[in-house]
Amino acid sequence: MKRLLFDVSTNVMYVAYARDEILVDFSIRIATRDHAKYLVDRIDQVLKRNKVSIDQIDEIIIGYGPGSYTGIRIAVVVGKMLSYTKKITLKVISSLQFMTSGYEGKIAACIDARRGFVFAGIYEDGKVIQDDAYVKLSDLYQLDVARNAQTVIIDDRNFEISIKRIIENSKIVENVHDLEPNYLRKTEAETNHDQKSDFK
Question: For residue 118, how many other CB atoms are within 10 A of its CB?
């Protein structure tokens, strides 16, 4: 089985091509807010390097959040587009789980959500111990389930990928049209709108 995998939930763009459960090739790009310009091109580069066309891909697995609002929207839009137009099976996995799938032992996987908050999930050897949440970093450390966990703040120096674990823990999308990014929090614009609506 030929698989395409990608995640753009942080400043790290990760695109991989795998055959069965074996990583064949990958591309990493470090960015700030311009993943939208490069994701499709990077997918094309990885496939061309391996003499594979998108029509030969059997399955796509994407990290669909939480993380960068723009990044996870891009991942979902590209995943849905390729799945629908090319009739390819689409699967999703938490971006936190995707980007820390290669770590051993118990970890607290985090993505900086600013103002002292993080998107966080607790995993052990790739398995979910505590579901992803939007929490204060200080509160995360108080949780019993986080005790003895290694904290991994995902960035361009802190991530480990296991293709096998990503495949094992991804879930099939039954209807691609219904797929939404896993935001875990409102956008700043939505929050400001709600505050104005609630003002008496």
Answer: 25
